[in-house]
Amino acid sequence: MEFICLKKNMKQQPFEYRLANSLNNPTCKRKQIKKSVLQHCVNAGFIREVEKDNESLRYKWLMEVLDINLTSLSLLDQITVDSNYSLTPADVQTEIDAKVSAVVKNIVKRLMETAVAYPCLNCESIARDSQQKPELK
């Protein structure tokens, strides 16, 4: 009986709040964050579309870092998100934008602090070319 009342109340809510509730799904937000971070990386020239398609070493590194960040943010949400306030689609988008920003900043920080080189754009082709070129004497 309680479920029916909840469903009836959902229909009485304005469309904006129903939309926000559906967008606030953790899986949906995770996909949106991942897509946005990937787009920022492509736009900045950090990875290329072909690297995504071929799942290059750089792309795999990025996916691992992205998964670590998304899992960390999800864990943090467990203690910080207040589920008692009304959401609007703008609230959900603001949260997603803030998380995208945090993930991009974390990627930049990792790149700037690493002593180990991450896979470069042409590393795989350079390695192949150096094996094929004859030595100059």
Q: What are its keywords?
A:
single chain; 137 residues; mainly alpha; 75% helix; elongated; disordered C terminus
Secondary-structure topology with pairs:
Elements: H1 2-12, H2 15-23, H3 26-43, H4 49-54, H5 57-80, H6 89-113, H7 123-132
Describe it for me?
The protein has 137 residues and is an all-alpha fold. It is elongated. It contains 7 helices and no strands. The relative contact order is 0.12. Helix 2 (15-23) packs parallel to helix 6 (89-113) and helix 5 (57-80) crosses helix 6. The longest helix is centred in the C-terminal third of the chain and has 25 residues, at 89-113. The termini are far apart.
What would you say about this model in short?
The chain contains 7 helices and no strands. The protein is mostly helical and 137 residues long.
Major sheet summary line = none
Question: What form results from the Cα inertia axes?
Answer: elongated
Radius of gyration: 21 Å
* Quaternary assembly: single chain
Number of E-type strands: 0
Helix and strand string, N-terminal first?
A: HHHHHHH
Q: How would you state the average pLDDT, rounded?
A: 78
| First-residue to last-residue Cα separation | 87 Å
Q: Beta fraction of the residues?
A: under 5%
- The number of helical runs is 7
Q: Which structural class matches the secondary elements?
A: mainly alpha
